[in-house]
Design a protein that fits this description.
about 625 residues; alpha/beta; Rossmann fold; six-stranded parallel sheet; 23 helices; transferase; magnesium; thiamine pyrophosphate
């Protein structure tokens, strides 16, 4: 993916990502030509957003950004959504971007308003999501004085954005915003921050549109090199145990049709990472499922025993590779990525291909000369044998409570076909990736790289605003839900009818699972008290909380109630809905590769470890 455009490294004083440039004398307009309108910096921000066809901005006003909110009130094109927390604004911008393919926009004031955007900016950076964050800053003369609500947000976010701007002249606002949107959306997508001091928002300058962008050195490579493409195609044609290892870059580039064509042309098995769920249909016979820490046994085995990995928009992260030194030891690597920094970062590539996945896969298809699919017969026999022996499944625990995997499976089976799903982080996220079927890209939105609890509800809000005609379900845990559920008030007031399934096991479920497996069942600080017991009531009661936030609150505690409650939730489309599913605390996510060990050590269940030493013949 493209080399991130970074602001200059901070010196001993506050970082200034875009220092003022010497201004050339402004020539007088030609006789008879109309001069550019003179606007305040604040008016220029809103006008630029309108010119950039921004539909929605998620944010909260405050002192330093307040000048921008006055002209925003008069805009007939840009809708502002008043969130309840800036983190919610950032995640909503992410959800909007993921669902629509457009750049998401969030806005905050200086100091704590800006720093509350750090988590969603870091999340967007890890998962390559195009968002632009506009923040107010204290007046230029006060920068560096520790003024009220001052924070060096450019310096703070420098490592977690593609670029950070500090605007020093109101005349630069159109250009800076145009550049910010271009940088966010092109090459490897990602977040861009634009910080504007209050005095710059209040000063006046000519508004010129379209502006001339000035991005020296920013030249994302999108077209792959023909020689590498031919080498990759030749390796695929020769391989006896190939795997198409598909990452989120395939979704970002819109390459799902090309991926399907390449898979069917070559006959190779396909694995899709957490960020690529839906890039290849779950129902397709060549799909082995998700690889990695909680991947399927066939997918993990395929990567470990492959003689060729064709990595498409994937970054060989630790949750897929396990212990890196033991990952796919016999495999040659074809690595396609639009960011050259990713190629060779974790695993050396035999054939490195810098370029857009859509262009690269299309070129591979054209260059491929079929070596005959008969050579893959033994490979598929092994993989199909593992599929039969180790299917995804779960065991009911006789604790009188609902089985969470079954609840999530029923959610998927009863939802409309084009439903968009968001997830928080933890056990429910993994179960949502395993037991809901994804046939198309852009239908499963979650926090992969950063693993941000609290992502689901605000991301669902942003996704729903971008796709109002589609059903949007947030699958959340009782821990995640309590981090950002205040945005349900936003949804209720703004008329954004999302649906939330709280998989309520009364605990921080994934942490409890690790305590069960690795800490001798010493459950230190994981009980959230969200289950009713004789000793204490539910704290909080999610049904009452939902109602207090302007939503419909429902609960299912028995298997007989589950389908009816899901159907009831699906039928409500004028208000947000929250369903509290009371599930057992002892269910675990399987399969599992414990952290820091080889993928060869995968556990199918607690005491069941497939033996990969003899090609899966167990």
């Amino acid at each position: 993916m493209s080399t991130p455009v970074k602001a200059p490294k901070p010196g001993p004083q506050a970082a200034k990502a875009q220092p003022a440039r010497p201004k050339a004398p402004k020539p007088a307009p030609p006789i008879g030509a109309s001069a550019a309108p003179v606007l305040t910096g604040a008016q220029a921000v809103v006008r630029a957003l309108e010119e950039l066809e921004v539909e929605a901005v998620f944010g909260i006003p405050g002192g330093a950004i307040l000048p921008a909110y006055d002209p925003l009130l008069d805009s007939e094109k840009v809708r502002h959504v008043l969130v309840r927390h800036e983190q919610g604004a950032g995640h909503a911008a992410q959800g909007y971007a993921l669902a629509t393919g457009k750049v998401g926009v969030c806005m905050a004031t200086s100091g704590p308003g800006a720093t509350n955007l750090v988590t969603p900016l870091a999340d967007a950076h890890m998962d390559s999501i195009p968002i632009v964050a506009i923040t107010g800053q204290v007046a230029s003369s006060a920068i560096g004085t520790d003024a009220f609500q001052e924070a060096d947000i450019c310096g703070i976010t420098m490592p977690i954005t593609k670029h950070s701007y500090l605007v020093t002249d109101a005349e630069d606002i159109p250009r800076v915003l145009a550049e910010a949107f271009h940088v966010a959306a092109t090459g490897r997508p990602g977040p861009v921050l634009v910080d504007i001091p209050k005095d710059i928002l209040q000063s006046e300058a000519p508004f010129v549109w379209p502006p001339k962008m000035d991005l020296p050195g920013y030249r994302p490579t999108t077209q792959p090199h023909g020689k590498q493409i031919r080498e990759a195609a030749a390796l695929i044609a020769e391989a006896k145990k190939p795997v198409l290892y598909v990452g989120g870059g395939v979704v970002k580039s819109g390459a799902h049709a090309e991926l399907l064509a390449l898979a069917e042309l070559t006959g190779a098995p396909v694995v899709t990472t957490l960020m690529a769920r839906g890039a290849f249909p779950d129902s397709h016979p060549q799909h082995l499922g998700m690889p990695g820490m909680h991947g399927t046994v066939p997918a993990v085995h395929a990567l470990q025993k492959a003689d060729l990995l064709v990595a498409l928009g994937a970054r060989f992260d630790d949750r897929v590779t396990g212990k890196l030194a033991t990952f796919a030891p016999e495999a040659k690597i074809v690595h396609v990525d639009i960011d050259p920094a990713e190629i060779g970062k974790n695993r050396e590539a035999d054939v490195p291909i810098v370029g857009d996945c859509k262009a690269a896969i299309a070129a591979m298809i054209e260059a491929y000369e079929d070596g005959g699919k008969e050579r893959l017969k033994t490979w598929w026999e092994t993989l199909d044998d593992l599929r039969g022996r180790y299917p995804l499944g779960y065991t009911d625990i006789d604790d009188g409570l609902l089985t969470p995997q079954w609840v999530i499976q029923r959610l998927g089976e009863l939802a409309p076909a084009d439903t968009i799903w968001t997830a928080g982080v933890g056990q429910h996220q993994m179960w949502a990736s395993q037991f809901i079927k994804y046939e198309t890209p852009g239908t499963f939105l979650n926090s992969g790289g950063l693993g941000t609890m609290g992502f689901a509800v605000p991301a669902a809000m942003g996704a729903k605003l971008g796709e109002m005609d589609r059903t949007v379900w947030a699958v959340d845990g009782d821990g995640c839900f309590q981090m950002t559920n205040q945005e349900l008030a936003t949804c209720a007031v703004e008329g954004i009818p999302i649906k939330v399934a709280v998989i309520n096991n009364g605990n921080l479920g994934m942490v409890r699972q690790w305590q069960t497996l690795f800490y001798e069942q010493r459950y230190s600080n994981t009980n959230l008290s969200t289950h009713h017991s004789e000793a204490s009531p539910r704290v909080p009661d999610f049904v009452k909380l939902a109602e207090a936030l302007g939503c419909v609150g429902l609960r299912a505690e028995t298997a007989e109630e589950v389908d009816e409650v899901i159907k009831q939730a699906n039928a409500i489309n004028d208000r947000p809905v929250v369903v509290d599913f009371t599930v057992g605390p002892d269910a675990m996510v399987w399969p599992m590769v414990p952290a820091g060990v080889s993928n060869d050590e995968i556990l199918y269940a607690r005491d069941v470890r497939p033996n990969f030493d003899d090609e899966g013949q167990i």
